[in-house]
Design brief:
The protein contains 13 helices and 17 strands. By secondary structure, the chain is α+β, with helices and mostly antiparallel strands. It folds into two domains: 374 residues, Jelly Rolls (Sandwich); 84 residues, no CATH class. Bound molecules: 2-acetamido-2-deoxy-beta-D-glucopyranose (2 copies). Keywords: Signal.
């Protein structure tokens, strides 16, 4: 359900269809996600077949997927240097590089309430470690070992899953092996109070479980969010747990504020619309050119032509993104106006989720984010998502192993149909059933934790089997007992 390939839908029309405050929460752009991989050279169950390795395997084993862990950044000063906190001023000092944990001044009365507050204010939060260093080490080694058993590992492209900017990025959906189960149980036991508070129920469904791995060479992704539209009150929450200290050169997830909040007056979308307001203020072709905005707002006949399109055009967004940079001293991400050197002119929009080993980045699926550029080696994350019980979330891609999913046909109300149309989503109609779509849910609920493993750590057959081929899950499922046996609906 996230970080998927971009859809054909043009930005302009997607944005043009929403009213801004709605967009802020509901718009999403392109999909994709990142991660990387590597391993420390353990012999694996599948080692025999992999050892006649392809050049791609060799390249990955020989460096691009090296693990730079454990780095053991237990001492705060060392983390400070690597993750860059301590120099930021004011509210920004709260964006700690030791995880980008955002603490509200008076937060902390209850961990659960704090989590909901932070999710609603910022769209994300980072926790202290929810896995110990040794648990994280063991889990990382296991996930890399699984990845090495994947056919993709030996292929040139190095792309597993339905990801955008999918070079050296692997999204391996997981079985509940012994090690995966132990790690997930451990993480959920710590996060459970927050998750219960967020969902207001223990019936939330596990709808994603995967290893997200990137290796050196994976590029920065485009900004995207994971869900287009969400039924009233439904939530989809994703948890990324770093299995090594994830410094900026490993390409941690960048997360953007989706609404004004105590740290910034701007969300990503209203900041990108700012360019148009600047051009209106300048109101003069010469000065508009001097400010670098000529290509955007001066047309072929040399006249000032500021579009009145609703939403942001692709050209505006490209220009905007080209001037978005990370401040390595505090891991903030800001738009730096090309016409100004004044630090005070930058618009802070988000933060780099550089986190220490074992900590979790938790974010709402509507939060804009992107995978960072990895120049160093394996970045391994265990990730999972929960959605509200029986949620209808369009735009998500459910990649969980089929054995853990339930797919059903859902008749759509007028409002649901209109919402889906507004986001360019398709649904089906049939004379008998009217308008309907498929809803994917998870069989495993929050209340079912701790889970029991259903595979040993040594089993490998499943790794290349049963991969979800259709992101809409329209194939191969036993939908409504239709016994499709692999046929399209
Ligand atoms: C821009 O300048 C023109 C001509 O001087 C003026 O008529 C117009 O009102 C100005 N627009 C804005 C937005 O200030
Ligand atoms: C350029 O912009 C002016 C003012 O908006 C408009 O009247 C004119 O038709 C535009 N020319 C072209 C070629 O788009």
């Amino acid at each position: 359900m996230r970080d998927r390939r971009p859809r054909a839908r043009p930005v302009k029309s997607a944005l043009g269809r929403c009213i801004l405050p709605v967009c802020v929460f509901f718009a999403l752009f392109w999909l994709s996600r990142a991660s990387s991989e590597t391993e420390t050279g353990t012999i694996t169950a599948s080692g025999a077949s992999l050892s006649k390795s392809s050049t791609s395997t060799q390249k990955r084993d020989a460096g691009s997927c090296d693990v730079h862990a454990p780095t053991r950044l237990r001492q705060r000063e060392r983390r400070e240097r690597l993750f860059g906190w301590g120099r930021a001023q004011g509210a920004l000092r709260l964006l700690r590089g030791d995880g980008i944990e955002i603490k509200l001044r008076n937060a902390g009365r209850s961990a659960g309430r704090g989590a909901v507050n932070r999710l609603d204010k910022y769209g994300f939060f980072v926790t202290d470690p929810v896995l110990s260093e040794s648990e994280a080490d063991i889990t990382r080694a296991h996930l890399l070992d699984l990845l090495r058993s994947s056919k993709t590992y030996a292929e040139d492209e190095g792309c597993l899953g339905d990801l955008a900017d999918c070079t050296e990025r692997f999204d391996l959906s997981l079985r509940l092996t012994k090690t995966v189960t132990r790690a997930v149980n451990s993480i959920v036991s710590k996060l459970k109070p927050a998750l219960v508070e967020i969902f207001d129920s223990e019936d939330a469904e596990l709808v994603e479980l995967s290893a997200l791995i990137t290796c050196a060479g994976s590029p920065e992704q485009r900004v995207h969010s994971d869900a287009d539209s969400i039924g009233n009150g439904d939530r989809l929450i994703s948890v990324f747990v770093s299995l090594q200290d994830t410094t900026a050169d490993l390409g941690p997830t960048n997360v953007f504020f989706n609404s004004p909040n105590p740290i910034t007056d701007f969300d990503y979308f209203s900041a990108s619309q700012m360019l148009r307001r600047v051009a209106e203020e300048l109101n003069n072709t010469d000065t508009i050119r001097e400010h670098g905005l000529g290509d955007l707002y001066i047309n072929a006949t040399g006249m000032l032509d500021i579009t009145s399109e609703e939403g942001v055009t692709k050209a505006e967004l490209d220009f905007f993104n080209a001037h978005v940079r990370v401040d390595e001293t505090d891991n903030t991400i800001a738009f730096y106006p090309p016409w100004s050197d004044a630090a005070s002119d930058r618009l802070i929009l988000g933060v780099v989720g550089a986190t220490r080993q074992g900590s979790a980045l938790v974010y709402d699926s509507r939060t804009s984010h992107r995978g960072g550029r990895n120049t160093r080696g394996a970045r391994v994350q265990l990730m999972f998502s929960f959605q509200s019980k029986r949620a209808l979330i369009s735009g998500s891609t459910f990649t969980m192993r089929r054995r853990y999913q339930r797919v059903e046909r859902l008749p759509l109300t007028l409002i649901q149909r209109a919402t889906m149309r507004a986001f360019g989503q398709e649904f089906k109609t049939s004379p008998k059933a009217g308008a309907w779509t498929l809803r994917t849910g998870g069989k495993i609920r929050l209340r079912d934790f701790p889970l029991r493993p259903d595979a040993s750590d040594r089993e490998r057959e499943w790794v290349n089997e049963d991969l979800v081929r259709s992101t809409n899950n329209e194939r191969d499922f036993d939908v409504d007992g239709l016994h499709l046996d692999g046929a399209d609906i």
